[in-house]
Write a structure and sequence with these properties.
heterodimer, A: alpha/beta, Alpha-Beta Plaits, 3 domains, rod-shaped, B: C8orf32 fold, five-stranded antiparallel sheet, two-stranded parallel ribbon, 7 strands, 39% helix, globular
């Protein structure tokens, strides 16, 4: 029962009790007074009658006359004259009940009238005794009328009290409701502050709650800052602020196996020529400045490709991972970069005319990490030996997958022809039980060959087809859910989530499949989600009623500020594989994971590690408190 | 009772008071006529006739037995009241006793000077001729031997005293009721 209802009941009960009490007291007092009055009337009249009868002759006629005279002229129930022996000589009685007074009322408040008695004497002798009883009829009428008036007053006063209470409650209610909302919001991990009410007791509570909310926000901000610091420390090159070698390798491993990445691409290695010489000639400081400029230049030239990753691998080596870049385009792109870097010499940042050399390795899904690295090193070595600025090495059939398509026709055709398929990858919990499977969309080409998401998604995005494709994935996922008992996770693009048309269609799909909808986990790429905070919150409100979970995938992949997790009511976080790669040998990333797990647990979020490659990594992750895992090792564990 | 007497009237009436208590206690084992003899004589001897106006500063004040003993005097109704309650206490049936208003011819039956007076009467049976206990003539005589008195009206505790009735302001209007209340307060209530 709510506090307000309890207050109401209390007020009503107290009012009723007070009124019942006052009613009873006033009724009993009035009745007592009336009884006294009636007794006095009886006694006085008895004395008067006895006195006058004592002066008269005592024959029956006179006695009868006197008794009748008194009875007829007054309000009596009984006037009786008995002789010395106690025999009734004359008696007049009127036992009529009062009209208009309910019987139950007379039973509830009975009026007992004491009889007045007096002695009649005849000279020195006793003659008899008179008994007079005043009639209670008028007393009952008066008592009843009084009760009725009291009742009217009670009702009027009760009504007035009710109105006043109502007004008072409305005044007190608003801040209380706000406080309840705030408390509920806090339990849902939304931290809001409310204005302080004018009621003093409530004001202190609200002030305390607001202070607490502010403190929690500060705490979360501090945690986020700590995560950010840890991530930078462990994964960035301190000089150039680019990703370091470890982070780069983690990403490369993902690019080689994850369907979300383009099926093929290029790994570019840039080695600055004679860094030692620059160091010697221009001094350490100038050399560092030079490297920073190179990093800035490279970063600005690859900035528009957010799935690419630029890193400083060691002293003079920079690496650029370019998924989706074809072997045909790569050398030209590398030369363009070199030309842009040549600017540095012009503005006298360096005295070296020949800035560096590129070794490029083309790769495709399924290539081993070491193979690709070796290939890139070989290309770089060849370039340095041959004084060629750019050398590309590739597997002979790498080119085969990179057939140019009319993507619009292909994608729309596949949608109408229902040529899309889904593949799924397991996500396990700490006890190796299936947490859910993550769905990946695949396209079955007319010639029967499969295209993975990484191959067609960039084109779909460019063509504005993401909402359509996402909806197709959800549709296929719901069909799948009809067959299986475990939950499924589906990636949604931030474009789709911000598209109200998409959300409407998604919700109607969910409504049609209410039974399955509760097992859907929607996840958004952190990079897209950061721009669409509000859209994600709105999206959550729409789909949460159907029991869907919402999470972020690739958490921490992109350097930049950590989003305000507590504002979003997320259910889970998938931590990007870049930090997971080689975690067992990387204390910095272990600290980072621990901090992320801490903040996630504080927000009631599940943490899942992406791209776990071997059991050693998972052992360390489990130790750090991560609750789920996915990647090759997890897939292997489920099959084994 | 004794305490009340001391605080209101001092040590002086204490002796009379104790004599009264002894007389009443002694009368318990006697016959009605002997009881009346003892009580009548006690009051006629130990109480002086004093007008209310002198004693109490009021025209007509009904004193309780305790007050009469305290003052050592009273007027006719104070005598009657003191005798009435003492007899009740000694064990005489209330139904046999009446306080009677009489018209008294001062100076004998032939006198034309009359005065309002009160005596105590005793009826051995309801139909019997009453005995008169008076302070004017010390001897107890049957009514027929008191030609100087003409009865007007009689009453006793019945008809006034209602068991269980609570005291309320209206009751004070009755002189009789007022007397009974004062007796109760003073601790004497046979």
């Amino acid at each position: 029962m709510s506090l307000l209802r309890q207050l109401w009941i209390m007020v009503i009960t107290i009012t009723l009790l007070a009124f019942a009490g006052s009613f009873a007291v006033s009724m009993l007092t009035a009745r007592n007074y009336l009884e006294q009055q009636l007794y006095v009337q009886s006694a006085d009249n008895a004395a008067a009658l006895a006195l006058s009868m004592s002066q008269q002759s005592k024959d029956d006629a006179t006695a009868q006359l006197m008794v009748t005279a008194l009875f007829d002229s007054g309000h009596f129930e009984l006037v009786r004259y008995t002789d010395v022996a106690g025999r009734v000589v004359v008696e007049r009685a009127n036992h009529a009940m009062p009209e208009g007074v309910p019987v139950w009322f007379m039973r509830l408040f009975p009026i007992h009238v004491g009889a007045g008695q007096a002695e009649v004497s005849d000279g020195w002798h006793q003659a008899g005794r008179v008994t007079v009883l005043a009639h209670s009829r008028y007393a009952y009428l008066s008592l009843w009328a009084g009760a009725f008036r009291l009742l009217i007053w009670i009702l009027a006063a009760g009504l007035l009290a009710g109105i006043v209470m109502q007004l008072l409650f409305r005044w007190v209610r608003r801040p209380i409701v706000q406080m309840v909302d705030q408390a509920e919001a806090i339990s849902e991990r939304r931290f809001i502050t409310i204005t302080e009410p004018r009621v003093i007791e409530l004001r202190q509570v609200v002030r305390a709650m607001n202070t607490m909310v502010a403190r929690v926000k500060t705490m979360f901000a501090e945690q986020a800052a700590r995560i950010e610091a840890l991530r930078s420390e462990a994964n960035r090159d301190p000089l150039t602020q680019l990703a370091n070698r470890n982070f780069f390798m983690g990403r490369l491993a993902q690019a080689l196996e994850n369907e979300e990445f383009a099926p093929s691409g290029c790994l570019l290695l840039l080695r600055i020529r004679d860094l030692a010489g620059i160091n010697r000639r221009l001094g350490r400081e100038r050399a560092d400045q030079f490297l920073q400029f190179v990093a800035g230049k490279l970063a600005s030239l690859s900035a528009d490709r957010h799935d690419w990753l630029l890193a400083r691998l060691n002293g003079a080596d920079f690496g650029l991972l370019a998924p989706g870049l074809s072997a045909d385009e790569a050398p030209a792109f590398a030369r363009e970069l070199l030309e842009n870097l040549a600017e540095l010499r012009r503005i006298e940042i360096t005295d070296e005319s020949d800035l560096g050399t590129f070794g490029i390795a083309a790769y495709r899904h399924g290539d081993a990490l070491s193979t690709v690295l070796t290939r890139a090193d070989q290309a770089l070595a060849q370039a340095e030996e041959t004084s060629n600025a750019v050398v590309l090495l590739s597997d002979s059939d790498t080119q085969a997958t990179l057939v140019a398509h009319d993507w619009h026709t292909l994608l729309t055709g596949a949608l109408t022809g229902e040529d899309f398929l889904v593949a799924s990858f397991p996500v396990l919990d700490r006890n190796d039980r299936l947490l859910h499977r993550e769905l990946m969309l695949r396209l079955c080409q007319p010639d029967g060959r499969l295209l993975t998401a990484g191959a067609f998604m960039p084109h779909a995005s460019r063509l504005g087809l993401m909402p359509v494709l996402d909806l197709e994935t959800v549709r296929l996922g719901l069909v799948e859910l009809g067959r299986v008992s475990y939950p499924l996770a589906i990636n949604l693009s931030s474009t789709s989530i911000a598209d109200s048309g998409f959300v409407d269609r998604l919700v109607s799909l969910l409504r049609q499949h209410r039974d399955q909808a509760g097992r859907l986990w929607f996840e958004v790429n952190e990079f897209g989600f950061r721009d669409e905070l509000r859209a994600l919150a709105a999206f959550g409100e729409r789909v949460r009623p159907y029991g869907c979970k919402i999470g972020i995938e690739h958490f921490g992949r992109h350097f930049g500020s950590i989003p305000q997790l507590y504002d979003l009511q997320l259910d889970y976080l998938k931590i990007d594989g870049s930090f997971i790669q080689g975690i067992d040998e990387h204390p910095g990333n272990q600290q980072l994971i621990k901090a992320i797990v801490g903040i996630a647990e504080g927000n009631d979020m599940l943490t899942i590690a992406e791209g776990v490659h071997d059991d050693g990594e998972w052992l360390v992750l489990a130790e750090l408190g991560v609750q789920g895992w996915t990647g090759p090792a997890a897939t292997g564990r489920l099959q084994g | 009772m004794e305490q009340t007497l001391k605080t209101r009237f001092g040590q002086k009436p204490l002796q009379v008071f104790q004599a009264w208590r002894q007389t009443v206690a002694g009368a318990r084992g006697l016959s009605d006529s002997a009881r009346m003899e003892a009580i009548n004589n006690f009051f006629n001897r130990n109480m002086a006739f004093v007008d209310d106006q002198i004693l109490w500063g009021e025209v007509d004040y009904w004193a309780t037995p305790l007050e009469s003993i305290g003052k050592g005097g009273g007027d006719c109704e104070d005598f009657a009241i003191a005798k009435y309650f003492s007899l009740l206490e000694a064990g005489v049936d209330n139904a046999k006793l009446r306080l009677t208003y009489v018209k008294a011819r001062i100076g004998g039956p032939e006198s034309s000077v009359t005065q309002a007076h009160m005596v105590l009467t005793y009826y051995a049976t309801p139909q019997a001729e009453p005995l008169v206990l008076d302070n004017l003539i010390g001897e107890i005589r049957p009514a027929s031997r008191r030609p100087d008195l003409i009865p007007v009206f009689s009453f006793n505790r019945d008809g006034v005293y209602v068991p269980g009735a609570t005291t309320a302001s209206v009751d004070r209007l009755s002189r009789w009721k007022n007397l009974l209340q004062r007796m109760q307060q003073q601790g004497y209530y046979p």
